[in-house]
Amino acid sequence: MARIDVIMPQMGESIAEGTLSKWLKKVGDAVKRDEPIFEISTDKVDAEIPSPSAGVLAEIKVTEGQTVPIQTVVAVLETEAKAGVGGQVPGVREPPAQAPAPAATERSVSSPAPGKPEPAPQAPTPDTRHPAPGVHPPTPVSLETAEERLRRRSTPLVRKIAAEHQLDISAVPGSGHAGRVTKKDILGYIETGRTDAPAQERAEAPRAPAAPVPSVPAASSAWDATPWPGDRVEPMSRIRQLTADHMIFSRRTSAHVTTLYEVDMTRVARLRAASKKGYEERGVKLTYLGFIVKAVADQLRRHPILNSAVQRGAIIYRGQVNIGIAVALDWGLIVLVIRGADELSLFGIARTMADLADRARAKRLKPDEVQSGTFTITNPGVFGSYVGTPIINQPQVGILGVGAIEKRPKVMTLEDGTDVIVPRMMTMLSISYDHRIVDGADADRFMSDLKAELEAFPENGV
Questions:
Q1: Residues 228/400, Cβ–Cβ less than 8 Å
Q2: What is the pLDDT of residues 190-247, one digit of tens each?
Q3: Is the full-model pTM beyond 0.85?
């Protein structure tokens, strides 16, 4: 009977910890290889983690709702054979085999032979792959750079937030593993209005265990609602808490301005109706959103300021056009990323959107499919919304909102100059942009060109 450790996987390069949100199996349950065994939530993605081997769930070490560092053992499987493991598998780590104790023989305790010096005891070679509990392999201090020390204490997102607010990360109390500064720590530190202590004061301060920093400002507690008799109180899910923190952070970071454009989608509607059946025969559903994503990707190449990001006193013009699509799931909001959208055809965009949406609902997304977006589109119109003013998805500088696409009366002028009112397929597009680097003229030129492309969408582009 072999025992196999199931560990908290690393769902992305910058992810240092994960929250075990739900166990899908209980102790004593039989599990198959690759069968979902538990769900995790990170600041990037919710996902079901498959079992690394077939066997029986013998022990659960991490409870639901607990946040632990990556590589933490969360459960133990018992299995009859190791063949199902297949060597190095993400999410599995076999306990190191215990070396047998040396036999107490006469030779092992006898004196050395005459004339031969007694050999010095040889120091055991540390096993850096499986260190003993509480023992960590030494890190050569002389080889560690300042950047490496910061990387040990924080994620790239935390360092970016600290840089934007000109904060010294070493001054922020860390509640993560080994004093690591988490996003919650840095946001709470900023919200409370604290300033960096002098370096000498920090050096002299005793190193006490850091307490978790609340993610909301202390002043807001006075406005917290109080449950009344008959109310139902449910704790926020991990993804809901992260969304709330991100929205507050975005509003505080970017100078939000929103502009609205009315767009005639009648031509797109006709092209869609003519091509819909052909797309379905190829296994892809052709939606209005696919046309909009294609047009946005084209315009982001022509208007690179909307495909940029802010880095303190600099503007980063992204070389890739990765469009995020905000999708409302039963358990919260998630942004799926279509990488290289400007290089895809309309069919490629439609197929990618459908695939990402299906796997998002099944919690089968990969980390890189929900990060590294350069511009975001949200589609509240699918629920009937006329228009909206969305919040920017940091660290991007623009987000497009799509209103309901429906028949509305429109005044049109005939060739003889006569004005008539006709039914047309219309929508309202809104763009929220970061006025720190995007001027109104930039946003209006982008929207004007987007409107023109959609209203005259090329037939050969379908």
A1: no
A2: 776 554 444 444 444 444 444 443 444 444 455 688 999 999 999 987 778 878 888 9
A3: no
In whole angstroms, give the CA distance from residue 442 to residue 439: 5
Classify residue 319 by its DSSP letter.
Answer: S
Q: What's CA 283's distance to the chain center, in Å?
A: 29
Given 439, 442, 444, 449, which residue is catalytic? 439
Contacts of 368 (CB under 8 A, 6+ apart): 12, 337, 339
Task: Strands of 360-418 (E only): list them.
Answer: 375-378, 398-402, 406-413
* Residue whose tokens read 């904060």: 167
328 CB neighbour count, 10 Å cutoff: 13
Comparing CA positions, the residue from 321, 359, 356, 365 lying closest to residue 339 is: 321
Catalytic site includes residue 256 = no
Determine the CATH number of domain 256-461: 3.30.559.10
Is residue 439 among the annotated active site residues? yes
What is the CATH topology of the domain spanning 2-93? OB fold (Dihydrolipoamide Acetyltransferase, E2P) (2.40.50)
Q: Is 426:455 a contact under the CB 8 Å cutoff? A: no
Mean confidence (pLDDT) of the chain? 79
Q: What is the residue extent of each domain of the chain?
A: 2-93, 144-219, 256-461
pLDDT tens digits along 27-75: 999 999 888 899 887 655 678 888 888 999 999 999 998 888 888 999 9
Task: Tell me how far apart the alpha carbons of residues 220 and 389 are, in angstroms, rounded to a whole number.
Answer: 25
Q: Which candidate in 368, 435, 444, 449 is catalytic?
A: 435
* Arithmetic mean of pLDDT, 379-398: 95
Q: How much is the average pLDDT of 372-376?
A: 95
User: What angle do the packed helices 440-455 and 266-281 form, to 10 degrees?
Assistant: 60
Please report which helix (H) or strand (E) contains residue 266, including its range: helix 266-281
The strand pair at 17-23 and 36-41 is best described as: antiparallel
- Contact yes or no for 385/378 (Cβ under 8 A): no
